Structure formats: structure tokens, C-alpha cells
Amino acid sequence: MFPKTIAWKDNRVVILDQRRLPEEEAYLECLDAYAVVEAIKAMAIRGAPAIGIAAAMGIALGALGIDKKDFTPFYQELSSICKNLKAARPTAINLRWALERMKRVCEANREKAVEAIKGLLVSEALAILAEDIETNKRIGEQGKALIRAHDTILTHCNAGALATGGYGTALGVIRRAWEEKKGIKVIATETRPLLQGARLTAWELTREGIPVTLIADNMVGYLMQQGKIDLCIVGADRIACNGDVANKIGTYTLAILAKEHRIPFYVAAPLSTFDKNTKTGQDIPIEERDASEVTAMAGRRTAPQGIAVCNPAFDVTPHRYVSAIVTEKGVLKPPFKKRLQQILEKDAG
Ligand code: MRU
């Protein structure tokens, strides 16, 4: 069974603290929206769909703490909580998507008593969590045909249960193929600087008995050259209208290497990761994180004091390197633009 990333319990948000994995399975209890904002910023919870769910629960928690009887002052206070959550991490669109959905619940029910709206917000956050798990299972089902028996699959970062409400997107496809007894093997890149591949993907797959081999990021080209990788599958933080994909830093490098070696490069993501307001990958904001993530490892300094550091958390893979995008509604093949437009219109209607 996959790990429980996030839960709502007794009007608290309980988060599996991913900073402490794989050594410790410790849970963080957030008592207010501020604690949820901090958990997202510090990456106690991370991964695009997971931070969307956390933000929705943060709004529900924030709403419960507002002591206003009238809708207008209640909504004003909630909007400022919303702003803080939105700013916690800028690249993953799922966070904004979830906040918009929560706001719509408020606006559609503004005639109701504030106490009733609070209840509706809690229900909506729980629905977002439940739907995410179902969506990921559908992504797994849609994507399983891309995986042949005994394939060795490369994945980057963590797009698993830990990055979502459960089951995972890229790891959802891998999980489904494993359930179908395809005898697959996984290669996980360690994913510097924060080691989501080593700490999280390797942990998540090992505990379910899915064979996984860990490599340092700079070993990918060699393994591809040796014919040791059959396909790549990764998640996404935001997908532009033309199919350009923002995902964990290093994804672009992998995609180019895959093309050079004629290895399929797949992206698995829910429709909530598509941004209809972003035309191309150039418009996607890339989060720059603290220099200390690059200059230290496991609490030990690994670079000289005062060294200049560049630490973008994501990069954009142009759509021409993407062989297909697996969504809950089907597998999209290039050219993506028209197909994406159709699928998003259908989803909105
Ligand atoms: O910085 P992170 O750990 O939040 O980055 C996560 C990723 O890049 C994942 O691949 C992406 O969010 C997809 S998760 C299903």
C-alpha cells in the first residue's frame, strides 16, 4: 500500500514530513493555515498535486480560524490567507488550481451562513484529495500500455504517492505496470540538490517491493549509451498550452539525452497540471531556492563559504522532446497543442 502523504484529522492537517524520509516516518500536525504555508515552503510536503491538496486544506483550516459572521469580512480574511498560500511555491500550477477551486466554493455560496461555508470548504478540500487519488489511478491505467514486459524505466525526482494524494502520476504508471506483473525495473536518479529520487522515490518503491536501482544524476548518459534504459517517465509541475513541460531541474537534460538515444520520454500528469493561461514554457515562472541547498548536504558544508550559487528548482522541457503525455483522460501524442485544447475544453465543459 502506498504511503499517506496528507490527511485531515480532527480539524488539523497531518502531513508526512518528507524532509525526514527515509530515516524517519514522522508526521507534522498543522493547526493553522500559517503552518501549512510553512510546510509547503520548507518542502515538508512537495510535488505539484500534493501541494495543491495541502493548499486546499490550508484554506479550510484558515476558514475555521476566522471569527467573522458576515461574508464580506470573512472572505477578505480568507483571501489574504489564499495570497500567502499562493506565494509559497510559484511553479506548480496545481497549487493555484486548488486555491481557485476553493475560492469558487466561497463565491457560489456567499448567500449562506459563514459557518455553513466553512463546512463546505472542508468538504471541498477532502474531495480534492479523494479525486486526486482516483485521477492518479486513471493515469496509471491509461499509461500502462506504454510499458512492455521487462522494461527498465528511468524516472527523475519523485512523482509518486508522496508527490500526490496517493498512488502517484509517473510512479502511478509504474505501479500499474507492476500490478500487471510486467516484471519491470526502475532506475531512480538521486535528484540533486534535495535528493527526492534517493530519499523519496527509492523509499516509496522499495517498501512496495518494486525493484529500483539508484544512480547519481550524472550517470544517465552512460546508462543510455549502454542500452540499459528502455523508457523515461517523469511528472510535471506545469504544462503549457503547446505541451512544454516544467518539471524538476534536470528533466530537460534527461529529455535531450533520451532523444539522442531514441528512448521514449513520457510525462504523466493530471489535467490540473495544464495551464491554459500559459502559452509556452517560456512563460512559466521558475522557482529559485536557497543557496544552502547546493552548498551543504546532510547538514555538512560541501562548498567554500561565500561561493556564488545558482539554484533553480525546475526547468522547462520543450514539447519536441516529449514522446507523449499521459493524463487521466488519455495519452496525448504530438502535436500537442490542438489535442490539449480539445481535452481542456471538454474538461471545462
Ligand atoms: O520541488 P519538488 O520536490 O516539489 O518537485 C517535484 C517535481 O518536480 C515532480 O516531478 C512534480 O511535482 C510532479 S509530482 C506528481
Portion in strands: 15-25%
Query: What count of helical segments does DSSP give?
Result: 11
Give the H and E element order: EEEHHHHHEHEHEHEEEHEHEEEEEH
On the 0 to 100 scale, the average pLDDT is 97
Rg for CA atoms: 20 Å
> Judging from the principal axes of the Cα atoms, what is the shape?
globular
Structural class: alpha/beta
Bound molecules: 5-S-methyl-1-O-phosphono-5-thio-D-ribulose
Distance between the termini: 35 Å
Low-confidence segments, given as residue ranges, are: none
- Write out the strand line-up for the largest beta sheet, numbering strands in chain order: 6-5-4-7-10-14-15
Q: Approximately how much helix is present in the residues?
A: 40-55%
Largest sheet: 7 strands, mixed
Number of strands: 15
Describe this structure in words.
By secondary structure, the chain is of the alpha/beta class. It contains eleven helices and 15 strands. The protein has helices spanning 33-41, 48-64, 71-88, 93-108, 114-143, 170-179, 196-206, 220-225, 251-260, 292-295, 336-348; strands at residues 6-9, 12-16, 27-30, 152-155, 185-189, 212-215, 231-234, 238-239, 245-248, 265-268, 296-297, 300-301, 314-317, 324-327, 330-332. The strands form four sheets. The protein has a seven-stranded mixed sheet, with helices on both faces. The chain has a three-stranded antiparallel sheet with strand order 1-2-3, with helices on one face. It has a three-stranded antiparallel sheet with strand order 8-9-13, with helices on one face. Strand 8 (238-239) and strand 9 (245-248) form a beta hairpin. Helix 1 (33-41) packs antiparallel against helix 2, helix 1 packs parallel to helix 3 (71-88) and helix 2 runs antiparallel to helix 3 (71-88). The longest helix has 30 residues, at 114-143. The two termini are 35 Å apart. The mean pLDDT is 97.
